[in-house]
Amino acid sequence: MRIFALIFISLLAFFLSLNVEKFILIGSISLKPIIILLYFTTLYWKPLYGLITGFFLGFLYEIYLPVFTGTYPLIFTSVTFGLSLIEKRIFKFRYNSLILLFCTVLFVGLVQVIIEVDKIISVFYLIFTHLIPEAILNSAVGLVILYFIKRCKD
Amino acid sequence: MEKRILRVYLLFVFISLSLLLLDGFTDIKLGNKCYNFFCLDFHNFFSKFLQNNDLKEENARLLEKIAVLSYEKQVYNELKKENQELKKIIEFKFNYPKGIIPAEIERRTLEEVNLSYQIDRGASEGIERNAAVISFNGIVGKVLKSGKNNSVVQTLKNYNSAISVKDTRSSIEGILKWNKKFFIEGVPQYADLKKGDTLVTSGKGSVFPKGLPVGIITRARKKVDDYSLEIEVEPFEDLNRINVVFVIEK
After folding, report:
1. Where in chain B is CATH 2.40.10.340?
2. Fold of the CATH domain B100-250
3. Residue B188: C-alpha distances to residues A108, A142, B193, B197, B234 (Å)
4. CB of A68 within 8 Å of any CB in chain B?
């Protein structure tokens, strides 16, 4: 049952990610539903689920944004693996743990920018104009989700 | 537990790196193929499916439009034709030195012999008996009867019709008659009439004024039993096809 729920949520996150990223933009920044899903699945559910979800969502993501095949599965699984390594070393139900989500979004965004942008100077420019605001936005959404998770837990 | 995660992670990394290497060093371009299959083909399929109803509606709308346009075109062509005819009539009327009355043919006899017309102008418009009737290209006949509002025209295609004509080249005169074909009567063998000569009215008699175009000689040969020429004529105007005639005021 949980697996089906995970598949459903993954697909939902995937379609949200496709549509939100294309149509709901705040300036040039957008939500990253896949990263948020991977973050919460890995830290608050099971790290293995996060890993598997990351791998398959990476493939799905690549179908719609074709770069070199295997790039996104590698990025997403690496992110979820990294999160799973520190899962037990943090106080994940504290709000300041969301700094991890901030770093995750920033990291994924940085990798994406490095893949897509040729000039290194543009990467530094985009960190301040695009990546950090995007990470803040996603952390804010993560804050809301964490609030509900905490309420459910209590 | 962590070892299990590590194993899964390494497996995924291995698969991802293999795919990356496969994609980087070969021309397979798996990502593009998947993109084409999942996005473009599906998108095209669903687009066609969704657009089907729109296309049907558009087709019906366009068919209706075509029907309306066809009808309008037909009306337009009729008006154009009528306009051209009226233009021709006005031009003809202004260019002609004498007073002429344009008239439309209301009815014509169906038989080929003794062809006559009923026209929509009569004595009230100044049409008198024996007035000459012409058309755009040449002579047509004369007014046989003149009623108040319509008249009867006896055409050249009549056994009783006899018009004095003149060859424009040699000025030789003769009488144009009709007996299932047009011919000139009473021309001696030595007369200089040739195939292709143009004939006009000579002005003799009180009906037709001088110089109205009549027709062209199509055949000229000597008769064996007689001392005259056998001359066949083709009138300029096709008497079975005209719709408008002009009556020359006396």
Report:
1. 100-250
2. Thrombin, subunit H (2.40.10)
3. 117, 122, 10, 16, 20
4. yes
